[in-house]
Specification:
Length: 93
Amino acid sequence: MFKDCPSSDFKEVDRDAYRWTRNPVTSNDFIPMNIISEPPPRMLDDSDKMCMGYGLSMFDSLKNSFEKYRKLHQNFRPHQREQFIQDKGSFIA
């Protein structure tokens, strides 16, 4: 679909990883957003960004996951915070 997607530089690793989820956790919490819903149309060639939409955001530690969530959440306006929670969940798995 996209050239070199995923990147040929990527490699499989076996490690603990953390991800934002809903409660209870569902299989959709581990499906890329571009598979759940149709990606938005792009005016420019952003195929690298489109490729990223088929990946999953993971964190290397519970602390890093929590800090990133907190930082993003606190910078949103109240109505955006609710949408963020609906989109990303409010738990870490």
